[in-house]
Amino acid sequence: MSFLALAIKPLVYISVPVILLRTVASASSVGRYYAQLTIYLGTLAVVSTWGVFVAVGMTLIGRRHDVNYVVARSFYAIASRLLDIRVEVEGEEYLQTRPMVMVGNHQSVLDILCLARMFPMKASIMAKKELQWSPLGPWMYMSGAVFIDRRNSTKAHESLTAAGEEMKSKGISLMMYPEGTRNNQEEPSLLPFKKGAFHLAVEAGIPILPFVCENYWRIYHKGVFGMGTIKIRVLPPIPTSGLLASDVAELTTQVRDQMLAALREISVKVASEEIVKAADLEPNTETNLLPVEESEPAPTTTAEVAPEEVPDSPSESGSEVPGVDVPMARSLKQEGSVSEYGETDDEGMVVVVGRH
Description:
Blueprint: H1 2-27, H2 29-60, H3 67-83, E1 85-90, E2 101-104, H4 111-118, E3 123-128, H5 137-142, E4 146-148, H6 153-170, E5 173-176, H7 196-204, E6 208-213, E7 220-221, E8 224-225, E9 228-234, H8 248-266, H9 271-281, H10 326-330, E10 349-353
Parallel strand pairs: 1-9, 2-5, 2-6, 3-4
Antiparallel strand pairs: 3-10, 5-10, 6-9, 7-8
Helix pairs in contact: 1-2, 2-3, 3-4, 6-7
């Protein structure tokens, strides 16, 4: 009887908060948002804490670089069920390419769930230096994470150069977010790309592997946290052998164009997009839609960055990036945006993938 109690009590302690949060979520959309967010961040905190013990044990048995794979897949297995969000990956076979520089779009904190679904074995993490002292720090340190000082362009460049040498010598890969900051918009879009990842790929002579996570605005944005399926498309690798530093700008544009086309193709259209498209197709046709007042664009949290602090950025060259309007280009210098060689996501996660 005592053994049965020991087995049931932990389940009760875990299930009661979840049931309460589910009850709150069913009450209103605001309640659902905060309930889902609490479940998501709570699961992330619990799995990260558990990851510290996993890191210690796997390091002792010589499998340090498998820590992130185990922790990431565990997080996805738990969080996806609690949140009722499923992630589908198309082109997963391309993830076997190694070494490579993986580049993807970055929308929000929910990207962690998406990456957890596609996280490969033999992986370690490169992260911004600030995370070294966060609750995630101990686990990241013991799992072989490399911390980068993104406020110092010179040190960041040196860190990426060292990473490139390790990529070639050990056959590992690096995952980066070339947008440099989060971009969660109602319509599928990409910010201008920074070129650090592409310089790294060209210098190391290894392919670029683009991937896109569909625009999940319908599922998650400020005030909304719903349920559903999110698609990820991994594109074929793009070789860089024989390319020079002078080819980086063209390579950056080529990759961004491919990613933007794929992003628009796999993203589910939201209602407002369909209304705008219908209006464009029939500009002279009267409709029963009520006129909508033009509203000022939502303010974004920005940090003024001097031009020299963001070197070699597409927006500084004066050349227009296809598919990005002027306001979107200006939003490049949002909070979290860093120098070309210090680019990383706002959660600070850049993934280094090793050979099996």
